[in-house]
């Protein structure tokens, strides 16, 4: 039965009375459906793919994460692979998951659906980091991958990411074809699953784990630049690491150890795999509260660097000891600047630096790493928000031979160096960050002093993202209205400084001196970006992972104080424009 044709209440009734709906979900639905707003939100739409897959609350409903919505999209993928034919079915799909509630169950459900189609499935024997999934797709030459995770979202959420044969998150056009197959499903309660024991016996579902871990860990040994430096410094460089209750715990100890970082202290309370993420308000390495436990341990062991990763270990944040003896959180942009400088300095020293190298970032990330990269004479490339676009660029470079990927990052704490993974990889990032700390330590400097050194050389850059929450039923329409309001206005100055260039990524136009030209460097996206006369840039876009609009401001100034004052000034001037 096609659910779209039913009214919302008929849909709710159809779910409620369906014999396949587990008793627990029936009860949950009976309670929640008392609220018409909830019904509208949970059944008024289908869960959509955003910046990084589908994410939703774990509840009944078509706009929620549950066995049936997971089943629907997986069946869509299975039908697409059926259509592609035997070779693709044999290449198969790798399935991985994080420690959230239901993650293992959703992963197994997806395996049974693909298995019922005779599609080869490689299912991880227990939870693993997202970047390991990306690696494994390439390693096993599988056709696709599924990651069950809601990244750093609160514990009530889960999510579903699809990866393509190159190990990158599927770009929108390919996801659309999976969605098309899924939409053709008549009744999501009738999606067939195979029998686990039979599929295991037949080898259609193969468990993977340590065998793949070893291969991934071996590749991770190619990330660091200067082993001698690490050997000389690492013993005197205590590092604190927290997996924030997530998958990082599975491999990190080995990763650090195998790469010469023996003096690593794991935060014991946060090394417990816990779907409640009990010790943190949000398991997000961007948030200061994620470092509270780490800082306590760091003070005890005298650590200069604290590293934390989100539950699926694709993103990494860190805190460093500053001159005042306090732990200071670095932004994703600052981490990227430090890494760019260190990596290219190291490559120059070892003779590996060539003009063919390319560094890739998103359009809302800091310009400082590009300024540094340009000073080393390497190429730079901007892409839209979403690491899938960095993955796409890597594939493009490799296919065309037009450059060699050396580093990709986003301000949202995603970093990647080596293309054996095609999504952000916190394990690679942690190794590089530890080496950055070793580098400054060898020069008798703290990482914070290293940042100051970069500012003195290249300018004082500062960036800030402010989010305007837009939750609730009308959240989406409010976000649209905000974007439209700004589009309808001709903004010639912000805080008294002239707008030199204005880009609308949806209309694909750029305006300079009142003249509009076509601007087709990127796929269409709901983003507006302003470039000001003093090197400031301001961008506005609705988030693709959370109900919020994000305002990004980036400035370049002559001191830290001026830079921060300018960021604040521009944020408030822009907020006025939005009102
Ligand atoms: O700004 P958003 O659309 O919410 O996305 C923020 C981030 O979300 C996820 O972590 C994606 O994998 C990133 O690529 C993205 O930068």
From TrEMBL:
GO molecular function terms listed in the Swiss-Prot or TrEMBL record = magnesium ion binding; phosphoglucomutase activity; phosphopentomutase activity
- PROSITE patterns in the record, alphabetically? PGM_PMM
Cite the Alpha-D-phosphohexomutase alpha/beta/alpha domain residue spans from the record.
48-186, 229-319, 332-454
Q: Keyword set for this entry?
A: Carbohydrate metabolism, Glucose metabolism, Isomerase, Magnesium, Metal-binding, Phosphoprotein
State which pathway it belongs to.
Lipid metabolism; Glycolipid metabolism; diglucosyl-diacylglycerol biosynthesis
Top-level EC class as recorded in UniProt = isomerase
Instruction: Report the EC code(s) recorded for this entry.
Output: 5.4.2.2
Question: What cofactors does this protein use?
Answer: Mg(2+)
The answer to whether keyword Phosphoprotein applies is yes
Q: Which domain of life is it from?
A: Bacteria
Which part of the chain is the Alpha-D-phosphohexomutase C-terminal domain? 508-562
Q: Which reaction does it catalyse?
A: alpha-D-glucose 1-phosphate = alpha-D-glucose 6-phosphate
The UniProt entry's GO biological process terms, in alphabetical order, are: glucose metabolic process; purine ribonucleoside salvage
Question: Pfam families under this entry?
Answer: PGM_PMM_I, PGM_PMM_II, PGM_PMM_III, PGM_PMM_IV
Family of this protein:
Belongs to the phosphohexose mutase family.
Q: Which PANTHER family match?
A: PHOSPHOGLUCOMUTASE 2B-RELATED (PTHR45745:SF1), PHOSPHOMANNOMUTASE 45A (PTHR45745)
Specify the protein name: Phosphoglucomutase
């Amino acid at each position: 039965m096609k659910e779209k044709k039913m009214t919302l209440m008929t849909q709710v009734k159809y779910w409620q009375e369906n014999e396949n709906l587990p008793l627990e979900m029936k009860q949950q639905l009976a309670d929640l459906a008392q609220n018409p707003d909830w019904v509208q939100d949970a059944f008024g739409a289908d869960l959509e793919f955003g910046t990084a897959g589908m994410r939703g609350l774990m509840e009944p409903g078509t706009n929620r994460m549950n066995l049936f919505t997971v089943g629907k999209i997986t069946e869509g993928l299975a039908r697409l692979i059926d259509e592609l034919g035997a070779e693709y079915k044999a290449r198969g799909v790798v399935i991985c998951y994080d420690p959230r509630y239901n993650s293992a169950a959703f992963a197994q459900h997806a395996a049974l659906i693909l298995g019922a189609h005779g599609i080869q499935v490689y299912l991880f024997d227990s939870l693993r980091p997202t970047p390991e999934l990306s690696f494994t797709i390439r390693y096993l030459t599988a056709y696709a991958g599924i990651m069950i995770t809601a990244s750093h979202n609160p514990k009530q959420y889960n999510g579903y990411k699809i990866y393509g044969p190159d190990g990158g998150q599927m770009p929108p056009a390919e996801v659309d074809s999976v969605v098309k197959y899924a939409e053709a499903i008549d009744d999501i309660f009738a999606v067939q699953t195979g029998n686990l024991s039979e599929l295991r016996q037949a080898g259609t579902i193969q468990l993977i784990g340590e065998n793949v871990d070893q291969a991934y860990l071996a590749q991770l040994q190619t990330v660091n630049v200067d082993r001698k430096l690490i050997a000389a410094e690492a013993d005197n460089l205590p590092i604190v690491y927290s997996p924030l209750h997530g998958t990082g715990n599975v491999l990190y100890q080995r990763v650090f150890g195998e790469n010469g970082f023996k003096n690593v202290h794991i935060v014991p309370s946060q090394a417990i795999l816990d779907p409640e993420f009990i010790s943190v308000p949000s398991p997000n390495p961007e948030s200061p509260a994620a470092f509270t436990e780490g800082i306590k341990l760091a003070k005890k062991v005298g650590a200069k660097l604290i590293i934390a990763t989100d539950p699926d270990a694709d993103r990494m944040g860190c805190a460093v000891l500053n001159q005042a003896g306090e732990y200071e959180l670095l932004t994703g942009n600052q981490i990227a600047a430090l890494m760019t400088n260190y990596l290219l300095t190291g490559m120059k020293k070892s003779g590996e630096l060539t003009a063919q190298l390319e560094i890739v970032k998103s359009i809302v990330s800091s310009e400082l790493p590009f300024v540094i990269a340009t000073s080393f004479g390497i190429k730079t490339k901007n892409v839209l928000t979403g690491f899938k676009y960095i993955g796409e660029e890597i594939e493009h470079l490799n296919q065309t031979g037009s450059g060699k990927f050396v580093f990709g990052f986003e301000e949202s704490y995603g970093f990647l160096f080596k293309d054996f993974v095609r999504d952000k990889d916190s394990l690679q990032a942690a190794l590089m960050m530890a080496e950055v700390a070793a580098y400054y330590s060898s020069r008798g400097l703290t990482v914070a002093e290293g940042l100051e050194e970069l500012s003195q050389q290249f300018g004082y850059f500062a960036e800030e993202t402010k989010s305007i929450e837009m939750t609730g039923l009308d959240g989406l329409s409010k976000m649209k209205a905000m974007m439209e309001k700004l589009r309808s206005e001709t903004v010639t100055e912000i805080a008294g400084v002239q707008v030199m260039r204005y880009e609308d990524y949806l209309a694909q136009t750029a305006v300079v001196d009142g003249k509009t030209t076509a601007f087709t460097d990127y796929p269409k996206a709901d983003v507006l970006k302003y470039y000001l006369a003093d090197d400031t840039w301001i961008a506005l876009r609705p988030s693709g992972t959370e109900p919020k609009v994000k305002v990004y401001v980036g400035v370049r100034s002559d001191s830290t104080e001026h830079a921060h004052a300018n960021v604040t000034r521009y944020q408030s001037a822009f907020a006025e424009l939005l009102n």
